[in-house]
Design goal:
There is one protein chain. By secondary structure, the protein is mainly α. The protein contains twelve helices and two strands, in the order αααααααααααββα. The longest helix has 17 residues. The N and C termini lie far apart (35 Å).
């Protein structure tokens, strides 16, 4: 089994355990943006781009067509209030400027060492970004879930297996730690406290729960029309 297939299977099994989702429900997992970065982060867009087979990134503004609705859980609204959405903006903060100076970085918002974990689709060619795609929106939906060109349609998203085959990513811990690691100047080795009392810099289960954005059990996709 390929690494990509194994990762997809692991993610699928993880979501089944966590959300006990029905076949048409998509369990949405992510990571906390408190460390200024995310799950399948911008860096992963470049480092693991072979997994996405050249698909186009459509941007959060396209995802919100369906995912801003309360009936489906308003995942867009939850993202918009998160630090993920402000990841690029954060690079202009005083704290970021201090960290940048210490690392010899003059402009965090334009330096690959910073931007790779604070935008979506870092390192991806312009040809693979939709006209409305805006990198300044930070760590967007597709940073975690993969470029949405082929799975964004509702008729595809209603079928989890089909969506996965079209490029949907259900992130797992190995995706998160691409950026949530000791290389981040915001890294705190004692950020999370586990059940046994031990302290760790990153705990996937706690991080995922902090930004969970599941589809409600009551949601019936058959009651709504197809969105573009």
């Amino acid at each position: 089994m390929s690494i990509v297939s194994r990762r997809t299977l692991d993610a699928f099994e993880s979501c089944v355990r966590l959300w006990r989702a029905r076949s048409w429900r998509l369990a949405a997992l992510g990571v906390p943006a408190a460390l200024l970065v995310l799950v399948l982060p911008a860096a992963a867009s470049a480092d693991h781009d072979d997994e996405h087979e050249g698909r186009e990134y459509v941007g959060a503004s396209k995802c919100k067509t369906c995912h801003k609705k309360d009936t489906i859980g308003n995942q867009y609204g939850k993202w918009l209030e998160s630090r993920h959405a402000k990841a690029y903006e954060t690079l202009a903060s005083e704290q970021s400027a201090k960290w940048a100076a210490e690392a010899g970085v003059s402009d965090p918002q334009n330096d690959a060492r910073c931007v790779k974990c604070h935008v979506t689709a870092y390192g991806v060619s312009q040809e693979r970004l939709s006209m409305k795609f805006d990198r300044t929106q930070g760590v967007q939906c597709e940073a975690c879930h993969g470029p949405g060109e082929d799975y964004r349609k509702k008729k595809i998203m209603m079928n989890r297996e089909l969506a996965l085959s079209k490029g949907l990513i259900l992130p797992v811990e190995e995706n998160c730690v691409t950026c949530h690691n000791e290389d981040s100047p915001a890294w705190n080795p004692e950020r999370y406290t586990r059940a046994d009392g031990s302290k760790v810099g990153f705990d996937f289960e706690q991080a995922a729960a902090a930004i969970a954005h599941p589809v409600p059990e009551s949601y019936d996709p058959r009651g709504e029309g197809e969105a573009d």
